[in-house]
Design goal:
It is built from 8 helices and 7 strands, in the order αβαβββαβααβααβα. By secondary structure, it is α/β, with parallel strands linked by helices.
Length: 325
Amino acid sequence: VDFQHLIWSLTLEGNLAVCPAHRTAKRVLDMGTGTGVWAIAFGCSGQVIGVDFSPIQPSWAPHNCTFEIDDLEKPWAWHEPFNFIFCRTMEGSFADPQLIIQEIYDNLTPGGWFEAGGFVLPMGCDDGSVPEESALRRWHDLMAQAGEQCGRSIESPSKYTKAIEDAGFVDIVTHKFVWPLNTWPKDKRFKEIGRWMVLNLDMGIEALTLGLLTRVMGWTEEEVLRLCDDVRKDLSKTWYHAYWNVHVVYARKPLQTECDPESQREAGPCPRSEPPGPAKSPEPLKLPQPPKSSGSPTHESPKSSGSSDSPPRKRKRGCEALSDP
């Protein structure tokens, strides 16, 4: 979780969130707080409650930051609403995302904001450098399949913009970013994110995979561990130009003066207003396009040409322009 926080911080250039209102929010809920690293960082600015199913938070925290152990899929019981509700990287955590979105709406003050961020499956690869039969592709496909089978789809928040709108939110905005899955890009910022992504998956891949594949897909523990080892090997191949698309969605609960409940039932959803711009909007992290000039860009290749893992020789194109010389 702490590695993920660092990756998000690099992506957002040090900002704790994308939504402009997070800078002025005085009462904040951090859903799925994990180790509490985000809540503690935010606790310097306002009152924040971090809630999680697992008691893995530190015993020390700023005086205006508290932690609660609770199941967010059960009815929420907070007596005072929040100005800002934050949710990040909780794909597959909820059996009924629409119900959770409605709980979020009901527990916001009028004019309050909600932000959710997460990655998008399947993984991205623009140049075909990751073979279809690779462990990396197989792992992504299996995780998505297992999530579907157990009723907890691993989908990004952008998949639920219709549910967010149906709940009553307005000013719905989506920002899109990219996380390389290793250090293949030339760009220093992408390369740094890729380095932390390798560490993040290296330390957490068993925790992500064991439960889903053994309980849902019927795999043995030995089979799962073998797959995880193979995925680690693929992550070390810098000629594999893989990445995650990452989406952040934020939205606002309308003020009571904007939409009277009685008139809303008669006239339908509230009209959208123009969302305010962030005080310091982070630049979306996007993969640059390759130059149009002649000559093929080069990429990092394995030292041993006789290795069975050597990539096939083919014309270079697409995102290979970003890769190491």
